[in-house]
Amino acid sequence: QVQLVESGGGLVQAGGSLRLSCAASGSTFSRYAMGWFRQAPGKEREFVAAVKWNGEDTRYADSVNGRFTISRDNAKNTVYLQMDNLKPEDTAVYYCARHDLMYSDLSHLHYSTWGQGTQVTVSS
């Protein structure tokens, strides 16, 4: 059973930056697309970004496109989310997730393996 552990959350002022990391256990990390999701208080969890298993394709939610960058290092079993120009509305618990299918593209949001989450708080 793969384990995903997020880190890098914290408190930052609006306009600032944070980089989230998600470390995966096991030897199959490089076979799966990885995604970042977030959940704000009182709201449903929403998609933020995803990166294909080989890093050659990425997708972003409209709300973060141009401000966030997802990347991965398969040699380190780690996926990153660089968040720049943060806004108060980015405040949420951020979760990384592994796609359900090996060698999948990013067409479908089929993610059922989740980390425990890391809190990001952006003050105005």
How would you sum up this structure, described in words?
- The chain has 124 residues and is mainly beta.
- It has no helices and 11 strands.
- Strands 2, 4, 5, 6, 9, 10 and 11 form a 7-stranded mixed sheet that branches.
- A hairpin with an 8-residue loop joins strand 9 and strand 10.
- The protein starts with a strand and ends with a strand.
Question: How many β-strand runs?
Answer: 11
Instruction: Provide the low-confidence segments as ranges.
Output: none
Distance between the termini: 40 Å
Average pLDDT score: 97
Oligomer: single chain
The major β-sheet equals: 7 strands, mixed
Structural class: mainly beta
Radius of gyration: 13 Å
SSE ordering: EEEEEEEEEEE
DSSP strand content? over 45%
Helix content range: under 10%
Principal-axes shape call:
globular
Helix count, DSSP H or I runs of 4 or more residues? 0
SSE inventory with pairings:
Elements: E1 4-7, E2 10-13, E3 18-24, E4 32-39, E5 46-51, E6 58-60, E7 68-73, E8 78-83, E9 92-102, E10 111-114, E11 118-123
Parallel strand pairs: 2-11
Antiparallel strand pairs: 1-3, 3-8, 4-5, 4-9, 5-6, 7-8, 9-10, 9-11
Name its key features:
single chain, 124 residues, mainly beta, 7-stranded mixed sheet, globular
Kindly summarize this structure in a few lines:
Helices cover 0% and strands 52% of the residues.
